Amino acid sequence: MRDKLYRFMQGRNGMDELARMQSWLVLILLLVGMFTRIGLFSFVALILMIYMYFRVFSRNTSKRYEENQKYLNFRYNRTVSWNRFKKRMGQARDYRFFKCPMCKQEVRVPRGHGKIEITCPKCREKFIRRT
Ligand SMILES: [Zn+2]
Questions:
Q1: What is the mean pLDDT of residues 106-111?
Q2: Are residues 65 and 115 both part of a single domain?
């Protein structure tokens, strides 16, 4: 039985990170559908499940790999921006953040120094802001 399954899965995409996330999403949607008794959730869960199994059993592994890579990139970027946001919140009491009008580089300056001239560390543009 194990051997049969192994042979069946050979050359197919299998469970990747994207499929794993989708199966969690399916589970959550099913639970929400059960509790709220809104049929739409179960319907979306079903569609998502079909799509997930389509990807898992797909033989076009390069295309599936690409999709998975896209998802991983998206997840990475989200984590990075979330961490940046958290860090910013931690510093919000002591610092102010400005965007350079020239190159959009973020500049961090300490609070409570009144109006000061800020020099962009990247492009050397000078601009005046109230801290
Ligand atoms: Zn700049």
A1: 94
A2: no
